[in-house]
Known about the structure:
mainly beta
Amino acid sequence: MDNITVREYFCDNLSAGGYNSEFYKCPNGCKEGACIGQICKDTCSSLGKQCGTWTICNVSTNCGTCIAPQICSNGQCVGSNTTLCGDGICGSGETCTNCPKDCGACVNQTYTCTDSDGGINYNVKGITTEYLGSNITATGTDFCSNSTLTEYYCSSSRLAKTTYTCSGNATCIGGACI
């Protein structure tokens, strides 16, 4: 992650796990997981851009690339010989993970989860990653907001989070109670 981008997690009952995330550009930079000053909420997806480099929130932003043989045209992946997700054909580059509409639901894949700080550990900053098969479905990095720690951990092989107010003389700094 760079020093001008913040990833915000939010509840989303339509997503696997019941939450989703969005990246935001911070025109004045960011510190400890939060924008400094005003937040710009425009994103590649909110502007309908799938590919190419665009100026979003006064910052040059790469919205991704297209899978060959598609090409990027005005922010959209297009191509005359390309199948697109939703066309009823499981085409080149489509899988059960990125296009279940055409390729069907993934089978025999289970959720797994890893946590670099070993679980709920308020004294160590950790990164928790959830997988479906070999695909990353979600990540969460422990962070502080004032004196409150948001701690990510694995629960039944799925990513979960809790908040904790550092106790005693401990202060929440850099994703851990110190």
